[in-house]
Amino acid sequence: MTAPAPTGAPDRASSGTGAADLSRCSLNTATVKHATLEEAVALAAEAGYGAVGLWRDRVQEIGADRAARVVADAGLRVSSLCRGGFLTATDDAGIAAALDDNRRAIEEAATVGTSELVFVVGGLPANGTPGQGPRPDAGPGDRDVVAARARVADRIGDLVPFATEHGVRIVLEALHPIFAADRAVLSTLGQALDLAAPFDAAAVGVVVDTYHVWWDPALRESIARAGAEGRVAGYQVCDWILPLAADPLLSRGYVGDGYVDFPTITRWVAETGYSGDVETEIFHQEIWDADPREVVATVAERYAHHVLPHL
C-alpha cells in the first residue's frame, strides 16, 4: 500500500513534472552519454533536478576541480561518482594498477564533492575485456569465482583507510548474474552486504540498482538488512526491457518501459529511512542517440510518476 504524502508535500503523483518535487531526482551522466559534463549539468539544473551522478570519463575530460565548480555553480549536488572497482586481478602488476586507479577515483570523488564512490568490483580474471570471450591463456584458477570474490574483499581492505582519510565511502554495486564473468562477481545485494560487513558502514556501503537486483527473491530482506546496518548509500533506477540487446549492458530502459516493480522496490528502500538522491542511470543506444533535452524531460516525468509517490 502506498503511504500518503506528508501534509504540505507537493503533488508527488503528478504524471508530469510541473508540480513534482525533483529535489531528490539525479541525472546520471551515463544516461546522456554524448553530452559533455557541462551540458548534462545545465540540462539537469534547467529541468529542476537536485543532483547529478558523474562518471569519471566526463570528469577527467575537464578535471575534477572544474567539474566540482560546474556542478556547484548550477546549484546541484553530486549524488555519486562512477566508478571504482575491477579488483579481481591475480598478479602483482594487476593488483597494483587496480589500487592506483581506485586511489585516483577516491581523490576525484572527494574533489567533485561526493562521499559516495560506486564500485563495480570486476569479473573473472579469465576475462580480459568486458563483453568479450575469455583470454586464450586463462586457466582453471582464472575461472574461480569464489577466489575472485575473496580478492575483492582483500582489495577493499587495502582501500578503506585511504577512502576514509578522504571522506569517501566505497559503495558496492551488485550486478545481474549475466555480468558475473566480465564485470562483477557480486550478483546479489546480500553478497555485497557480506563483503561490506567487516567494515564500518561509513566506510563501505551498497547501492540498490533496480536493473541489477529486481529479480532477487531475497531482495526485500537484503534491502531491510542494508537499512538496519546503515549501508544504503544510493538508489539507482532504470527498467529491465526485452528483447535483450546483443550487448545486454545496453538493455536498460526508461522507468516504466519494462518489468521492474518500482512502487514496491521504492517503498522497500524508503522503509530503510534512506533520504538521499535517486539516480536514473540508463545504457541504451537509442536513448543515447536521442536529443539529451528530451531524455532529461522523460527521465523526470518517469521519476515523478513511478518513483516519487513511493519515496
Write the layout of secondary structure elements.
Elements: E1 25-28, H1 37-47, E2 51-55, H2 56-62, H3 64-73, E3 77-85, H4 92-112, E4 116-120, H5 145-165, E5 169-173, H6 189-196, E6 204-209, H7 210-213, H8 219-228, E7 232-237, E8 239-240, E9 252-253, H9 262-271, E10 278-280, H10 285-289, H11 292-307
Parallel strand pairs: 1-2, 1-10, 2-3, 3-4, 4-5, 5-6, 6-7, 7-10
Antiparallel strand pairs: 8-9
Description:
There is one protein chain. Helix content is 40%, strand content 15%. With 311 residues, it is α/β, with parallel strands linked by helices. Helix 5 (145-165) links the parallel strand 4 and strand 5 (169-173). Helix 8 (219-228) packs parallel to helix 9 (262-271). The radius of gyration is 19 Å and the shape is globular.
Helix content: 25-40%
Low-confidence stretches: 1-16
Distance between the termini: 12 Å
Overall 3D shape? globular
User: What's the helix count?
Assistant: 11
Strands ordered across the widest β-sheet: 1-2-3-4-5-6-7-10
Q: From the helix content, strand content and strand pairing, which structural class follows?
A: alpha/beta
In round numbers, the mean pLDDT is 94
The tally of beta strands, per DSSP, is: 10
Largest sheet entry:
8 strands, parallel, barrel
Radius of gyration: 19 Å
SSE order, one letter for each helix or strand: EHEHHEHEHEHEHHEEEHEHH
Q: How much of the residues is beta strand, in percent?
A: 15-25%
